[in-house]
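User: Can you fold this complex?
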Amino acid sequence: MKIVYRCFLQMMRTIRHDMMLFAVCLGPVLCGMLIKFGIPFLESFLCIQLQKKTFLAPYYGLLDVFFAMLASVLFCFAAAMVVLEETDDKVIRYLFVTGLGKKGYLISRFGIPSGIAFVFTLILLRIFSLTKPGITELLLLGLSGTCMGLIIALMVVVFSTNKLEGMAITKLSTVIMLGGVAPYFVEHPVKYLLAPLSSFWMGKGMLEDSLWSFLISLMVSVIWIVVLFIKFQKKIA
Amino acid sequence: MRLRNLILWDIRFQAKYGFYFLYAVLTVLYVVLLFALPMDLRRKAAAILIFSDPAAMGMFFMGAVILLEKSQKIPCAFAVSPVKAAEYILAEVISFGAISEIVALVIAVAAGVSNLPGVLIGTLFSSVMFTLLGMIVAAKIKSLNQFVLGTVPFEIICFVPAILYLFGMLPEWMQYVPQVWCMGLIAQIDQSIMGIVWYAMLILLLFFVAYRNIERMWNSMGGAKL
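Assistant: Here's the predicted assembly.
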């Protein structure tokens, strides 16, 4: 475990050196402050301007869904970029033959960052959430958001063989976060085409205040994660 | 001839690493998204999509392109070849501009935009600006995380005023700001011809900075001054 922890610290040093650590920690806090203080202000401004009772308020839950994914996606994205660099520079193969091994490498690069992202997300959601979810909802939302970050990071490292492909996959994979929008804006049953995306169930869970939807979101996430892990293990075999 | 070869090489490079496939997938997604939106929102959404993605793709991908070239020691080859930094920059700008134009055309047609030449000109102008910005940042970085972080201020400066302008939340004089002017062209908002003067000045400045950064990068490959 000590070697895994050291490997994780080495990655954190790389990220800190790039100032990415600063951005990963500060970005969600700034975004949270913007949501907490800016959005209600904008809501009252727009309601006066457009002479409506509500304008943005019905979508506060959707903002929380995206906010729940933000910290985790940033943490896991930074880790994925390090993995991409290590794959590109062929360092990854050398790490596997050390005492760290494949399992230790995966824990240090994805497991620990996801755990930290989960705790960070819970704290941020508790402070900045506009809908003030209950404890169970908060936990499920945080867990689903963390899974989404892990899925995106795994997609990047599984489907790309170099930095350039990695950036392309990053762009494509972030689209899967948009599934949360469908329950809010699409009423037609065609929206269920997005059911294989866990973000869709997160959006549905927030909109309908349904814990079942969050549980489905987690189940969908687990399927994605298992499939991507198997693919990643095959890739690095 | 050299420029033509560089452009073709860039296009092959982009095709090999999946740019065309990626943008084919993204274009389909964007078109589906546009059709899911009400008609009155479609054109504004198309303008935002075009400005923030195909037009800005150079800024998003330039870091990865240059880092990959560095890992393949391509800048070392450029440094000792007759290729000039200006030709390299032009080739990147043209090759990225070509994909931007194709994707923007499909999105604009899907959104039912009537003035297609206006959209294409706006996309091309935006693409040149974003690719040069991406190149300026990319020539100075050592990792992808540095690049992602380095482009954030430019993304904020470029996207926020442009989107606010689209929704009429900026004063009239702001239309002369180059990125806002480009968004105006894409969104088919009546634009003053004077905007092109500021845009041209910005592009000249960006080209000069990109040229200097690329020259420096080529001349200092491998930690030694060539």
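Residues 31 and 67 of chain A are 8 Å apart (CA to CA). Chain A touches chain B through 27 residues (CB under 8 Å).
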